[in-house]
Design a protein that fits this description.
The chain is of the alpha/beta class. It has a single domain, classed as 3-Layer(aba) Sandwich (Rossmann fold). It contains eight helices and five strands, in the order βαβαααβαβααβα.
Length: about 170
């Protein structure tokens, strides 16, 4: 059984995933890193050259491939839940943990990260986070087996909360 971390950018999926993989002696796989490896382009370059739809196609391929493996910790990109087939694939062999954070926490964590391309291209960073979260929240909720709030918690504390649910 895989442990699958879902949630918006900046909710701690990567940091928590590293701790879980180490504690459980499992391989950690980032769907974003897999897309980058397969495309041989950074995410900003991939999106700029080919668009978000192409990125999402590659992400779906990665989710499908990872569903056939076992004993992984999977750190998904924030939009992996946008396609129902990704959620279905990841659920076949995994328990999905939705990591949440309030908008101010997300902005504090990722406000200056140039490797995270805009999802809207036209809004202020705060407006983008609020709008995208509003759209995605029901999808995260529907996909999640468990919900873990990360506000005011260290990655180690979040990892402990996940381990307590296994």
């Amino acid at each position: 059984m895989n442990i699958v971390l879902i949630g918006y950018r900046g909710t701690g999926k990567s940091s928590v995933g590293k701790i879980l993989a180490e504690r459980l002696q499992r391989e950690l796989i980032s769907t974003d890193a897999e897309v980058v490896q397969r495309a041989r382009l950074s995410i900003p370059d991939l999106v700029q050259r080919f668009g978000w739809e192409h990125f999402r196609d590659l992400e779906s391929d990665v989710c499908r491939d990872l569903a056939g493996r076992d004993r992984l910790v999977i750190d998904t990109g924030g939009g992996a839940i946008l396609r129902p087939q990704n959620v279905a694939a990841l659920k076949t062999s995994g328990i999905l943990f939705w990591l949440t954070a309030a908008v101010p926490t997300i902005i504090e964590r990722i406000g200056g990260d140039s490797q995270r391309p805009s999802l809207t291209g036209t809004k202020s960073f705060t407006d983008e986070v609020e709008d995208v979260l509003k759209e995605r929240r029901p999808k995260y909720q529907a996909a999640a087996d468990h919900v873990i709030a990360t506000d005011g918690r260290s990655p180690a504390q979040v990892a402990e909360a996940i381990l307590a649910k296994l």
